[in-house]
Amino acid sequence: QQQVKQSPQSLIVQKGGISIINCAYENTAFDYFPWYQQFPGKGPALLIAIRPDVSEKKEGRFTISFNKSAKQFSLHIMDSQPGDSATYFCAASFNNQGGKLIFGQGTELSVKP
Amino acid sequence: DTGVSQDPRHKITKRGQNVTFRCDPISEHNRLYWYRQTLGQGPEFLTYFQNEAQLEKSRLLSDRFSAERPKGSFSTLEIQRTEQGDSAMYLCASSLRAGANVLTFGAGSRLTVL
User: Fold this and answer.
1) Using the beta-carbon criterion (under 8 Å), do A41 and B100 form an inter-chain contact?
2) DSSP element (H, E) containing B22
3) What is the structure's pLDDT at B98?
4) Does B96 touch chain A (CB under 8 A)?
5) Which of A70, A73, B59, B105 is packed most tightly, with the most Cβ within 10 A?
6) Given A6, A95, A99, which is nearest B103 (Cβ)?
């Protein structure tokens, strides 16, 4: 019930295409869902986050879509660029547990020029 | 402010040796977290501090692991009697209490146990 399952494990997209990464969770008490981006040799960096009271959040080329009834959320990267090539992690947490995040397994994104 | 700093970046040790990692958080952040990340996996929560108080420890933090944050500023994570299974990236993160969900991670300390 504490797991967050992420797919796909790896993704190859052409420059300008849309990258879509999916996550599913079991515990309906989760109330904060961030996405982190990690480049080789670096720590994860917060990209965008959503709470379950909204179905979509957009920041630039990055959009989170949230489906509360299906217990799923996804990251869409529009107009994908080679500089977006990184590993992406979804995560979930309980609001009263602050930064204790439960991460998915990660998706390695490669954007081909 | 240079972000969250971790030292050393890489540590190679022999099984049975003790190792210590240091984390310097963002200065105004009063929460500090330790996570462990193994190859091809997402980070796993180990423990966190609110100022100098260690408020929660994961089951992953065996008796061989100890973390301190003596003055509410930097933190150390010590692993005693290292085992090959301890090989991982140890990530430190910090946050403001008010925005506790928003973590800023350091680049990590990679441990290899031979």
Assistant:
1) no
2) strand B19-24
3) 67
4) no
5) A73
6) A99
- For residue A56, count other CB atoms closer than 10 A to its CB: 12
pLDDT at B101: 80
Which positions in chain B touch A42 (Cβ < 8 Å)? 107
| A6 contact B CB<8A | yes
Distance CA A83, CA A113 (A): 10
Q: How far is Cα B81 from Cα B34, in angstroms, rounded to an integer?
A: 19
The pLDDT score that the predictor gives to residue A94 is: 85
Please list the ranges in chain A whose pLDDT falls under 70: 1-2
Question: Searching chain A, which residue's CA lies closest to the CA of residue B98?
Answer: A98
Is the confidence at residue B13, as pLDDT, over 90? yes
Angle at B19 between CA B66 and CA B62, to 5 degrees: 35
Residue in B91, B100, B107 nearest the CB of A41: B107
pLDDT value at position B14?
97
Order of strands across the sheet that contains B75-79: B5-7, B19-24, B75-79, B65-68
**How many Å lie between the alpha carbon of A50 and the closest alpha carbon of chain B?**
11
Helix (H) or strand (E) segment spanning residue B114: none
